[in-house]
Amino acid sequence: MSDTLWAPEARRVDEANISAFARQLQATQGRVFDSYDALYDFSIGAPRSFWRAIWEFCEVRGQPGEEVLTDAERMPGARWFPGARLNFAENLLRQRDERPAIIFESETGLTRTITHEQLYRQVAGVAAALRAAGVAPGDRVAGFLPNLPETVIAMLAATSVGAVWSSCSPDFGTEGVVDRLGQVEPRVLFTTDSYAYNGKTHDCLQRVGEISRAIPAIEHIVMVPYLGPASTGHLKEAVTWDEFIREATEIEFERLPFDHPLYILFSSGTTGVPKCIVHGAGGTLLQHLKELVLHTDLKPGDRMCYFTTCGWMMWNWLASSLATGAAMVLYEGSPFYPTPGRMFDVIDAHDISVFGTGAKMISAWEKAGIRPMDSHSLKALRTLLSTGSPLAPESFEYVYRDIKQDICLSSISGGTDIISCFALGCPVLPVRRGELQCLGLGMRVEIRRDDGALADVGETGELCCSAPFPSMPVGFWNDPDGRKYQAAYFDQFPGIWAHGDFAQITQTRGMVIFGRSDATLNPGGVRIGTAEIYRQVEQLDEILESICVGQDWDNDVRVVLFVRLREGLLLDDDLRERVRAKVRANTTPRHVPAKVIQVADIPRTVSGKIVELAVRNVIHGRPVKNVDALANPEALKLYAHIEELDS
Questions:
Q1: Contacts of 338 (CB under 8 A, 6+ apart)
Q2: Which CATH superfamily is domain 520-646 in?
Q3: 165-179, pLDDT tens digit by residue?
Q4: pLDDT for 346-365, tens place per residue?
């Protein structure tokens, strides 16, 4: 199969938002932008002109001020739009009409549609209630909620008054929630009675009581009814959503500085107490508009769905789609219930034009034999987004073979740390097998060697960014001198953001990511990305998924591969040898696992990411901190005291 799997037709290129942006830029800059590379080079070479143009093209509501960037040589320390005043929610609520703004569907069959006008009025009511409760700019408001319309409404209401929003999904345990929200001390907690997943209903009320007792700062608990009646249960201090909300038709938006805190997001917390990452309103808005409008080509009237919980940054990214005039489609529940093809039912039912998910879901579709090309229309779907982990080349092929041929498959990569992406898709560029299409506009992305030197094109190393960008964190919560922030990203290469991904930039200026650099394997001192092994192993039909770690052994590191097989299968010597042969034939002898071991489950975070470092700690007899951050912490026990690892 050719490396180029898809290329846009001339009409799609001409009608793309990014083409319109380039034409507008040509008129103001007096130069020609006849390729993505030319536009990208301008975006990193003239950041002030570029980001001012983003503000204007995306029609940001607010005052931009005179300056775009000061202290540009400081990283961290640069300041974007220091004289600006804006409100994040005001920009997301700019539409007031009868078109859908939020479309909701759950695995239980519940559906709802909220228009832009209805959304505005509901946000107005909650914002008025927050003001009545004394919530002021800088106060924290939190959600312990499923992916409901009320979650979006509460966030918009909080940010409209200048409060800082933070959220955890209800699949977090009590300790996991307290470890996160307890650090930021919210005054108001929005929560719900229960949630459904994979055909089962899970109660939330007991954990809400435990959370409220553990976080004294919580003054108000607002209960959003979901699967039960409108009741606060035994929580006497709580009120229902309808009891809390006030009558209001207009919103008094607080316009605040560009870097006023908007969101507090959390690191995974699998290596200690989660870091509280503070993101500013202006940087988040500008970066998301750039990515949604230019890279994703989202237009007014489009319908965008990202399969996510409100504990993953993709929820925040999805919410920003409201600023484009598109409708956001929320799905709550298991993506495989009651059938593995449920998401394609949702795509067809709601005419979704842009759908996003994790790379593992795409792989799981293929393993389950899902072939939507034969069973679904997908007539509106023009873009499929993938993130969370590297998308295997074989998954690229699966999409074009079995899902849809005329589709822009955009593998994107960034993270909670930047609430956005370093590498993304682009509607005017071809899709190449195994590659992220391009580096993000305005992001001076580089690959660096261990000694800090720039890597050559095609050379693998540390993904870095060597110039400031608007969505850099404002800082970490409770880090007054900035030491934690500095240590997290800038200690490895002073003045340069080191992101923690093992990657390479290709000859076509796309990107390939090989996994987290802190989970990189080093047999014989040679750095190997775990994704290189997963790509080979998970092509075998018997293997559903795998996790690979390095084990300290005989003064070196050996590669250990754990595999989860299809139900009823047992790992035998023949399959072990086929695994090794597959890896050896398509990578190098150093990639070949010294041990291949069957396990019943693979531990992952609540956002679905496998936790290689946690498994590595377990096999070495080291403690795993904050196991409550895992969706299935009991799976870690499967990796302890494995006799096969003693020889």
A1: 107, 199
A2: ANL, C-terminal domain (3.30.300.30)
A3: 999 999 888 888 999
A4: 999 999 999 999 998 999 99
